[in-house]
């Protein structure tokens, strides 16, 4: 992110009228610095320069989402989709807005729409499973997480996120042995690659270990 910010600032020093550079700078400020006001300034400037830049609108919708301005986020996100209706990323981001607004049925519908556009777009499977978890539809959630892990397996890859998500829902649904197996896999993976503390917390939460969950979330924060 610091390198991306430096590149965006260099681009703007050459031409301050580049919508893409303002959007990229706003995106990095949002994700790396958590400076919502500065991020909003850059993203809205990008949209002002080019109102038809769908990516800037989608990123701005995410900023509105993380700051709890859900109604605005939905409107902006829908504008982004109107401009680029076949983008799996933009459609997934719309689903994330619905998810965090706790509009789970709409989130599920949106993630399914994304996967109809591109069934191989793996990033939609985890939040789709998460929306099912929130509705206590554990069998459906497990199915989506397994699709993600199977897709990775075909590519000879392993990633801790779907494994931790599976462990979480296995624990919630009473499949304790399966959940412990996922926990073991994640712990083994953490010895050789980065495993975000957030997802360790998600696993602990599935087992109802509140103190351990808070420990991991504090570390993640």
Provide the low-confidence segments as ranges: none
Which structural class should the secondary elements be placed in?
mainly alpha
State the total count of DSSP E strands: 0
| Beta-strand percentage range | under 5%
Major sheet: none
Mean pLDDT level: 94
Secondary-structure element order, as H and E?
HHHHHHHHHHHHH
Level of helix content? over 70%
Q: Overall 3D geometry? A: globular
What's the helix count? 13
CA gyration radius, whole angstroms: 19 Å
- How far the N terminus sits from the C terminus, by CA atoms, comes to 17 Å
Features:
221 residues; mainly alpha; 0% strand
Brief sketch in words of this structure:
This protein has 13 helices and no strands. It is mainly α and about 220 residues long.
Task: Explain this structure.
With 221 residues, the chain is an all-alpha fold. It contains 13 helices and no strands. The protein has helices spanning 2-14, 19-33, 36-49, 54-66, 70-83, 88-100, 104-117, 125-134, 138-154, 160-172, 176-189, 197-206, 210-220. Helix 3 packs antiparallel against helix 4 and helix 12 runs antiparallel to helix 13. The protein starts with a helix and ends with a helix.
List the helices and strands and how they pair.
Layout: H1 2-14, H2 19-33, H3 36-49, H4 54-66, H5 70-83, H6 88-100, H7 104-117, H8 125-134, H9 138-154, H10 160-172, H11 176-189, H12 197-206, H13 210-220
Helix pairs in contact: 1-2, 2-3, 2-4, 3-4, 4-5, 4-6, 5-6, 6-7, 7-8, 8-9, 8-10, 9-10, 10-11, 10-12, 12-13
């Amino acid at each position: 992110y610091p390198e991306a910010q430096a590149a965006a600032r260099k681009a703007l020093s050459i031409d301050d009228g580049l919508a893409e550079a303002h959007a990229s700078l706003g995106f990095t400020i949002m994700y790396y610095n958590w400076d919502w006001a500065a991020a909003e300034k850059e993203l809205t400037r990008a949209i002002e320069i080019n109102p038809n830049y769908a990516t800037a609108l989608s990123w701005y919708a995410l900023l509105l989402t993380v700051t709890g301005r859900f109604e605005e986020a939905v409107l902006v996100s829908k504008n982004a989709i109107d401009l680029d209706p076949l983008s799996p990323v933009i459609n997934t981001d719309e689903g994330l807005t619905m998810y965090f607004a706790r509009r789970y049925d709409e989130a599920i519908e949106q993630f399914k729409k994304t996967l109809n556009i591109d069934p191989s777009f793996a990033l939609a499977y985890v939040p789709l499973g998460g929306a099912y978890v929130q509705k206590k539809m554990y069998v459906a959630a497990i199915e989506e997480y397994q699709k993600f892990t199977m897709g990775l397996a075909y590519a000879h890859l392993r990633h801790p996120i779907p494994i931790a998500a599976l462990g979480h829902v296995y624990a919630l649904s009473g499949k304790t042995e399966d959940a412990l197996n996922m926990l073991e896999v994640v712990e083994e993976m953490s010895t050789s690659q980065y495993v975000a503390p957030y997802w360790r917390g998600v696993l602990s939460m599935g087992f109802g270990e509140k103190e351990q969950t808070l420990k991991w979330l504090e570390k993640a924060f």
